[in-house]
Amino acid sequence: MVLELTAESFEKEVLKSDLPVIVDFWASWCGPCRMLAPVFEQVSKEMQDKVKFAKISTEDYPELAQKHQITGIPCLLVFKGGEEVDRIIGFNPAPTLKQKIEQILE
Q1: Under 8 Å CB-to-CB from 58, ≥6 apart: which residues?
Q2: How far apart are CA 43 and CA 60, in angstroms?
């Protein structure tokens, strides 16, 4: 399950989460973002016991995208203990995305 974030829920769901969190910064007009959405959903189901998956629209919350220096989308930020530890930029097929996430979390 992918959690839909707002500026208000970002701190609670991401920065104060006990689990690592992967946040998908996306936009409705972005083709690669639309391609990534079902892949992100699929990987979230496979890894839901280890990682929290969330997404936030850069159109609705540009200030958060700016704060996290998002310069291209889709951009997945990986947070552990409230800190950004890595980012995955662009579209990746499910096996590649899952492998990258597992490597980051090791």
Answers
A1: 25, 26, 27, 64, 65, 70, 73
A2: 24
Residues in contact with 26: Cβ distance below 8 Å, sequence separation at least 6, in sequence order: 33, 36, 37, 55, 56, 57, 58, 73, 74
Q: At what angle do helices 31-47 and 94-105 cross, to 10 degrees?
A: 60
Q: Coil, helix or strand for 46?
A: helix
Q: 2-100 in CATH: which number?
A: 3.40.30.10
At 47 the pLDDT is 95
Report whether pLDDT(106) > 90.
Answer: no
Distance, CA of 81 to CA of 62 (rounded, Å): 24
Here the tokens at position 11 are 């701190």
Catalytic annotation, residues: 30, 33
Residue 101 binned pLDDT confidence (cut-offs 50, 70, 90): very high
Domain ranges within the chain, ordered by starting residue: 2-100
